[in-house]
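Handout, section B. The chain below has 167 residues.
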Amino acid sequence: MSTRVYVPTTLEGLRGMLRSGTVGPAPVVAHAVTEEVRRGLPDAGEEEWEHAASSAAGLACVGLLTATAGTGARPRRVVLAVDVASVRPAGDEEPTRVELDGTVPFSQVAAVLADAEDAEPAVAAARDALAAGAPEADRLLERCLDHELGWWATQETAELLASADDG
């Protein structure tokens, strides 16, 4: 039985993973439905738990974007939905956070979730506030959740990257 995990990355990270053919480097930080999530949301169902995990991964993307602030890189969140054999809890306060001990072949990516161009101002504001340690960073980060991540089949990844380059 496999576990669906959500791996936060960036457009540049996605390009690198396509080139290497692997999701990594190891250990791979991801988000998944964990027992802690199920206990914390006892009245929710699988769909709500999956949404919580993918949303947490989407928010984690913003932190990854702080390294590319000011470089001209598009401020878009990218999350890879990946099916893996096993995960281990990351052991921190984030209930969805897990780690994979090794890299994963890109062929195990089930879908790519990514922001559309209209999310860029909200994501850039959150990225910049987070990088500056601004007091409004959490509020701006939450605003990113107003933008639903679009779903892309893995065979559409080149199209996604081209549209980001053209935008």
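Note. The beta strands are 3-9, 22-23, 28-32, 78-84, 88-89, 97-100, 104-105, 109-114, 150-152. Compare this with the example in section A.
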